[in-house]
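Quarterly update, task 2.4: adenosine-5'-triphosphate-bound model.
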Amino acid sequence: MAEALQDATVKLSLDGVTSGYGAIDVLRGVSLDIREGEIFALMGKNGMGKTTLLKTILGAIRASAGRIRYEGAEITGAEPRALIAAGIGYAPQDQPLFQDLSIRDNLRLALPGDAHLPSALERVYGHFPFLADRLAQKAGTLSGGEQKMLIIARALMTEPRLLLIDEISEGLQPTVIARIAEALREERRSRGTTILLVEQNLDFALGIADRWAVLKLGTIDDAGPAGADAHSRILRHLQI
Ligand SMILES: Nc1ncnc2c1ncn2[C@@H]1O[C@H](COP(=O)(O)OP(=O)(O)OP(=O)(O)O)[C@@H](O)[C@H]1O
Ligand SMILES: [Mg+2]
């Protein structure tokens, strides 16, 4: 009974997940529970497997061992398209916007059709009003920070129940990071969206996260709540 109750609050769970590229394992038995409605920060230095972990959740990389469950159902090996349809949103680190397309078309392409386009656009304008004023502007002419906000907006178009975000704060000014933090807080507050935030920016991550974990050489090295000692504990892992 206790286990069933606990399961009901788990949005996403990884159990002994191993995955990588060809014969090389990058993730080596990762186990992680993300609770319904929480913001969870996954930290770790360059090359530790953070992006690989998100891509494995999303089915873009196949797990060679272990199980992934989302909203109580096993999704190991499911296709990215099916997972996005099932409510998982993704703001990738390495997949740029369509630079020659307008803001509006970049947002529009996030949806399978135009039926819900007006309401979806209204929702993301609420987070980032500048998008509404510059719909026809080509994405490639936006500043770095504006492009990152557009990447978040694009991921929010499908009204995800679980949002995976990969190092969105990389290279951004503090004012832009603060706007993104506010948008994510508001998204969670208004829709209960669960957010898995991959980050190296400690202040941003701990400013919005409820819990954190550090990924080191493909395994979870440390984890805890975003309490008083979180900063120094994570910093130790990021520096060594
Ligand atoms: N397509 C690929 N083919 C082969 N190896 C890869 C590929 N992508 C990543 N790797 C390797 O897998 C390891 C983990 O990479 P990954 O991108 O998951 O790390 P990361 O934690 O996201 O790093 P960063 O913080 O720099 O984004 C690295 O050693 C990387 O070189
Ligand atoms: Mg990465």
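Highlight for this quarter: The chain has one domain: 2-239.
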